[in-house]
Amino acid sequence: MDMGSYELKKAKNDQIYFVLKAANGEVILKSEMYTTKAAANNGIKSVQTNSPNAEQYELKEAANGQFHFNLKAKNHQVIGSSEMYKSKSGADNGIKSVQKNGPSDKIKDLTI
User: Are the C-beta atoms of 41 and 51 separated by less than 8 Å?
Assistant: First the structure.
């Protein structure tokens, strides 16, 4: 089974964030901003641990009728957020994709 991968990236303000990509290269989860690479790596570990558990997801409807979700750690902190989806079923499929790809241990460091 093909797994997705993580990409560590540097933002314009030098903060670090990561994205989780599905096997097809599509970004399915984006992290918060971190001040250090170590903190971002801990965020990835948290996604790897929490992503398989359906109860760690919070599905929300935006004011424009689109849907998005957050993946939360056990302490209820948001560790990753999805893109917007036109439908609830699209967001549900996004959650399934994060559940499947989140445990991946493939990490590409694009900050160097």
Answer: no
- Three-class secondary structure of residue 22 per DSSP: coil
Instruction: Please report, in tens digits, the pLDDT of each residue of the chain (112 residues total).
Output: 578 999 999 999 999 999 999 999 999 999 999 999 999 999 999 999 999 999 999 999 999 999 999 999 999 999 999 999 999 999 999 999 999 999 999 999 999 8
SS (H, E, C) 25-90: CCEEEECCCECCHHHHHHHHHHHHHHCCCHHHEEEEECCCCCEEEEEECCCCCEEEECCCECCHHH
59 CA to centre of own chain: 13
CB neighbour list of residue 75: distance below 8 Å, 6 or more residues apart: none
- Which three-class secondary structure state does DSSP give residue 12? coil
DSSP type of residue 3: -
Q: Distance between CA 66 and CA 36 in Å, rounded?
A: 32
- Of 72, 66, 34, 37, the closest CA to residue 53 belongs to 72
